[in-house]
Structure formats: C-alpha cells, structure tokens
Amino acid sequence: QIAEMIRVLVQTILLGVASLALLQTGVAAQCDALTIITETQNSYDGNFTSETLIPINGLDVVITFDSPVDNLAYWDGGVEKIDDTHFRITNQKFFETGSYVSVHFQAHYQEGTRPNVVSITLNGQEACDGSLQWTTVTPFTNPCAATGMGKYDYSQVLCMSILFYEAQRSGHLPEDQRVTPWRWDSALDDGSDVGHDLTGGYYDAGDHVKFGFPMAYTATVLAWGLIDFAEGYEKAGQTDYGRAAVKWATDYFLKAHTAEYELYGQVGDGDIDHTFWGRPEDMHMERPSMKIDRSAPGTELACETAAALAAASIVFKDVDSAYAAEMLDVAKELYAFGDEYRLEYHESITDAINFYRSWSGYGDELLWGALWLYRATEDATYLTKAQAAWDEFTLGEGALQFSWDDKKAGAYALGSLVDPSNTIYEEALKAFLSYLKTEAQYTPGGLVYLDAWGSNRHAANVAFLSLFAAKYGDPADAAGNTEWATGQLGYILGDFGHSFVVGYGVDPPTRPHHRSSSCPIPPQSCLKDNWGQSQPGPNPHTLYGALVGGPDGNDGYTDVRTDYQHNEVACDYNAAFSGALAAMVEVS
Are strands 210-211 and 20-22 parallel, antiparallel or unpaired? Predict the structure, then answer.
C-alpha cells in the first residue's frame, strides 16, 4: 500500500550576482536543508512527494538518498536515474535571479524504512553540508526620500503611493522594479487555460486575484491625476513612475482584449484564492480566466476598461504616440461593445458577485466612458452618448460617493471640464460637494464617513474631486474646496494621532491585511499553520505607501492583520489618493 503524501519543503535558495545564500535552519536525521511537514506511512512499498522552491537560472539538481529508491517522478522536466540512491532532475527553462520556480517530485520505494535525503546539489553546489553561507535577504528600505515639505510631506507620500503599485504587480517584473527583495516574478501561467497570455496586471488587494473591473477604475483615476495634476507629479519627481503604474495596467488590458467583442475580466477564483495565505510567487492553485463576449457581455467592465485606455492615451500621446493610438483604438471598440451588448458584467463573470458586484448598474460607466472618449478624441458623438446615458439612467441624482462601482460624481467633475457649456455637470458637482460638507456623516474626529468598508479610501476619493473643483471649477469655491480636502487628507496622514499610510508618519500601520508583505523569505513559516496571517508581530516587509481601509464611524481602528474591513489595502484605495496628493503638491 502506498504511503500517504509527505510534503517536504526543500531549502529555498537565492542566487545572487556572485554568491549563493541559503535561508532556513536545518532538520536532524537527514539533509539539513529539508523540513518534514507531515508524514503517514503503512507497510509494503510507498512513495513521498516533495516540493522545492528554487529561484535560479536553470535547474540541475542531484538528490542522494540513504537507501534505495525505485524511481523518481518529476513532471516539469527531465529525470535521470544515476543509481538506486542518486537521481538527477533538470529543467532548462531560464529563471531570472530573484524569481521562484516550484519543483514537485515523487519518490517511490519498497517496503521498509523511508529513504532520507542526505544530499542535494543545486547547480553543482552542495546544499546540505553547511558549507554555504547562511544569511538573510537584504532589508528593503524606502526609496522615497523625505523632501521637508510642510506639516505633511505630500511629495514623499505621493512617491510611496505609486511605489505601492509595484508591490502589487503580477507577471514578469521589469529591470527597474524597486520593490525587489520580496517581490519576484509570479503567475507566469495566467491565461494558459484559455490559450492566451494574460500575465501582468495587478493583484487586487491583500489577495492575488486580478479583478479587471476595479483594476480598470484604478488605471482610469491614476491617469486622471497625471493629466489634471501634472504639475504636482512633476514637482514630486513622480511623472515617470506614475506613467509606469498606469502602463502596467493598460499593457494587461491590451492583452486581455483578445477579439473585438471579447475581453478577459478576471484571472483567479476569489474563493479558492482566499484559502491561500502566502506569497504570489508560491501559489499553485488553479487560476481560471474569465471573460465577457457577445454571448455573455458585461457593460461596466467593457466601458470602464475603455475609460482607462482612453485616459491613458492622453497620458502617453506626447510620450509614445503609437502606444496611445493603439489604446485609443481598443477603447473605442470596447465602448461600442459595452454599449451595444448591455448586461451587468457580474451576470457573465459570476465569480465577481461576491467581490466586485456592480451595485450601481452600468449607466454610470456608459456616461463615464463616453466622457473620457470625448476628451481623448474630441469626437462630439461621445458627448451625445454621454447625454443619452445621463437621461436614460437619471444620473444627475443619487451620488453619495465616488468609487470603483459608482462613477457618477467623477463624471460630474470630468463633464464640467470637457463639456462646460452643458451646465448639468457643474451643477451636479456643486450639489455633490455641498452634500459632502453639510449632509454626509462624519466621524467624531472629522473624517467624512461614506462607507463602513474602506472609509479612508472613500474620503480620499472625494477629496480628489474637491481639489479638482478647486482647480478647475468656480473660483469662488476654490478656497473652501481646498480647505475641506486638506482636512480629509490630514486625518489620513496623522491629524488624528497616527498615520493610515504604511511606512509614513507617526505610528503608521505595520500589520496590513496583505499576504505578500506578511510572508518572510523563505516562505516556509508563512505557509505552515497560517503563520503569516495569525502571527502578532509586524509584517516582515513594509508595504510602503499603502493606504489601509481606515476607522469605523467612531474613529475606532486597530492595527490587526485579520481585520480586512479596516486594515486591508487595495489598488483602488490608492488611485484617487495619489491624484489628491499631487494636487496638494501643487497648492503647497
């Protein structure tokens, strides 16, 4: 009878420029680079399954056992049986330094004592005799220097806010990646289940799903900040980094648009993903790819992605005109798709229902997308479409927030700029900002409290709109709009006694609900007994710039990793926040 599985996590290895470093303590009775996690055995013959995580350039491993092994199975490369106790496994794929390749193998043996692994050589270097240097990864330090700006260093925080997006990157990381010691290549098979390359894009929050709808909103609003607060980005030295943050998303959207009427809007199953608390470099679960098409459309997803690509085309039109033109062409196709085939997107990508359901419907995305396409093309047809959506869905009323779901208030601001002769937008924007100041709920400490989930995010979003109105709206309201927004950002940055931005200010969060930053390198301790989520100390890696969810309605907040309502981070949380920071750089 075959023995039950034994999971063996072999020593993690980082191959540096000139040296090899091992990063885990050993286990007695066999190779010190192994840790036995579970074991169940019966009589007769048996087998055991092992996993090794090795970030190296090509793989050549010789494994030595202390008693005979019948055969060794390795599914991702070649196996050579040297003799009964020595096996070589190889994989000639090129793996860049600092990225993981997961190696699974199964050893089969006859009745008797389970063979121990007594030697492992990795690309010719012995891993079990202790001769190699034991070390740790160089700590990651904040690359965003303080500038000495006023009470709050808006330039530094803007730098950190954009840096946060580098920590959220999925796929093959670029050479200029700044978050390097603990973020490597990951999810390189995304899209393989449907025969498309869907690598890249952003992990949504503290998890590793790529939700296309909020990612598109994130890209749209990041681009918006770069366009209308360009001076602030430039003064802070963040223009190039901001463009790179937008492009990481738009490159992915272009891949995901696989046909005129086809757009992949999610990679990863939310429920399956959320059962894994570990680094994206170490995940092995299935990551299904989900799409919209003519038979299963999704208006919100198509039109928000169109908005993102249209806005990004403006960002890049004077930098890379060919790329801008490509994005604009796809934006037009996607908007037409969303307009022609109307259906709430979560009816087609049903996994999104429990995570990013479109509660506000698709009317606001039809308006929002049309306004962005008009701004990018100056084609008045899109103003006509915007007006049609406004009338059909009664979009001039009911705005209570600005978010990944509900774009109405954002459309008021955008419309007031791009279609100033149509006073509906300016009037609606003024009414919304008045509501925020006179009718909306506030915490006792002064944060406008628009939603129990991610309260900081909602305050930052509307602070961005208030600063936009201060710059581009009625000059008589400019001072009041700036003062109000400054107060909201002040609460977030420390006015209430502590900062809500990881790595910045007084007593910032150190335990955000974020899998990747909560896991040490090597990840064994994170994967065992859910250590990364449950351990009481700070996250091993500082997630610089991330805006955490925020307080409850009474200013209550505790820096606890398991509190995902108040202490999770997400890409959409930092989008308008970044634009608001750029605006504050301008006015400061």
Answer: unpaired
- Model confidence at 32, in pLDDT bands (50, 70, 90)? low
Distances (CA, A) of 255 to 10, 196, 269, 358: 35, 8, 19, 23
DSSP letter (8 states) at residue 116: P
Q: Which of 190, 339, 555, 568 is catalytic?
A: 568
DSSP 10-77: E--EEE-SS-EEE-S---TTS-TTEEE------SS-EEEEEEEEE-SSSEEEEEEESS--SEEEETTS
Residue 18, pLDDT > 80, answer no
Q: Is 145 exposed, middle or buried (0-12, 13-18, 19+ CB in 10 A)?
A: exposed
In whole angstroms, give the CA distance from residue 96 to residue 78: 20
Amino acid identity, residue 248? W
pLDDT in tens, 281-324: 989 899 999 999 999 999 999 999 999 999 999 999 999 999 99
397 counts as catalytic: no
Vertex 357: Cα angle to 248 and 225 (nearest 5): 40
Q: Bridge partners of 55?
A: none
Q: Which of 525, 520, 532, 524 is nearest to 562 (CA)?
A: 532
Dihedral angle, C-alpha 485, 488, 489, 494, nearest 10 °: 150
Q: How far apart are CA 256 and CA 182, in angstroms?
A: 27
Mean per-residue pLDDT, 213-219: 98
Do 573 and 454 touch, CB atoms closer than 8 A?
A: yes
The label of the residue with tokens 């690309």 reads 123
Specify whether 568 is catalytic: yes
Residue whose structure tokens are 């190889």: 90
Q: Look at strands 46-54 and 7-10 and give their pairing.
A: parallel
Quote the mean pLDDT of the chain: 87
Give the phi and the psi of residue 250 in degrees, each rounded to 5: -70, -30
- Looking at 495, 555, 559, 586, which residue is catalytic? 559
